[in-house]
Amino acid sequence: MRIGRERGASEMNDWNQIALVPAVRRLGLSRVGCWDKMEMAFLPGLNVITEIGSACGKSTILRSILQALWPTAGFSWPLTPSECAAEGRIVVEFMHPSISHRLVVQVDHPIRDSGAVSMGKRMLETLRSHLRVSHVGMGLLIDEDITSLLDTPKYREAVRLLNEATCQVICVISAQRFDPADFPSARVFACTGGDQGKAGMFLLQAGREN
């Protein structure tokens, strides 16, 4: 997919930090945002993206998958090419040529508490609800806004849910919360700051397939 310089209309809606997509095998970015050139290979299971030091581009990874899937869906801040580039490119390779999706009855349990605690409960329930409808062949993209709003007990529960997920998970977790011991089977990517504001990345943990 090519990334042009034109930005979307002002009424375009942004994504809500968690989304289900077809499971992703590989992602390649060329001149997209702060990424000059980058390639990632994901496990079918749990994949974690964190950072070391001052880094950028973590959320861009998730946004690029969504924008490649739905280029005209409409995001408040669509991705644009790197500075001075005429165009950027997103290449996504999926795990399977096709997927099937099972429809299940959703039972919502409204949360009536107020304040910061209710936001944490809401984020944890959002994670649970997405995992309930996910299955093998699907990927769950989770930005760090989801886990950053959880207090310690809720974060521990989120860690358990992520490790037990039956679908692929690509999750961004800030360095302040990330502990490699929490995700022994995950593939872990670490974003770093590069030269002239460009992002860098290296594989922190190879992980293993279930």
Q: What separation lies between the terminal Cα atoms?
A: 31 Å
How large, in whole angstroms, is the Cα Rg?
Answer: 17 Å
CATH uppermost class = Alpha Beta
Count of folded domains:
1
**CATH fold-level label:** Rossmann fold
For the record, the CATH architecture stands as 3-Layer(aba) Sandwich
Structural class computed from helices and strand pairing: alpha/beta
Main β-sheet description: 6 strands, mixed
Report strand %: 25-35%
Amount of helix? 10-25%
How would you briefly describe this protein structure?
With 210 residues, the chain is of the alpha/beta class. The chain is 23% helix and 29% strand.
Properties at a glance:
6-stranded mixed beta sheet; 4-stranded antiparallel beta sheet; 210 residues; alpha/beta; single chain; 4 helices; globular; 10 strands; Rossmann fold
Q: How would you describe this protein?
A:
The protein has helices spanning 58-69, 116-133, 144-148, 152-164; strands spanning 2-3, 18-22, 24-32, 35-41, 46-51, 88-94, 138-142, 168-172, 187-193, 199-205. A hairpin with a 2-residue loop joins strand 3 (24-32) and strand 4. Helix content is 23%, strand content 29%. Helix 2 (116-133) packs parallel to helix 4. It has one domain: 3-Layer(aba) Sandwich (Rossmann fold), CATH 3.40.50. By secondary structure, the chain is an alpha/beta fold. The radius of gyration is 17 Å and the shape is globular.
Blueprint of the fold:
Elements: E1 2-3, E2 18-22, E3 24-32, E4 35-41, E5 46-51, H1 58-69, E6 88-94, H2 116-133, E7 138-142, H3 144-148, H4 152-164, E8 168-172, E9 187-193, E10 199-205
Parallel strand pairs: 5-8, 5-9, 7-8
Antiparallel strand pairs: 1-6, 2-7, 3-4, 3-6, 9-10
Helix pairs in contact: 2-4
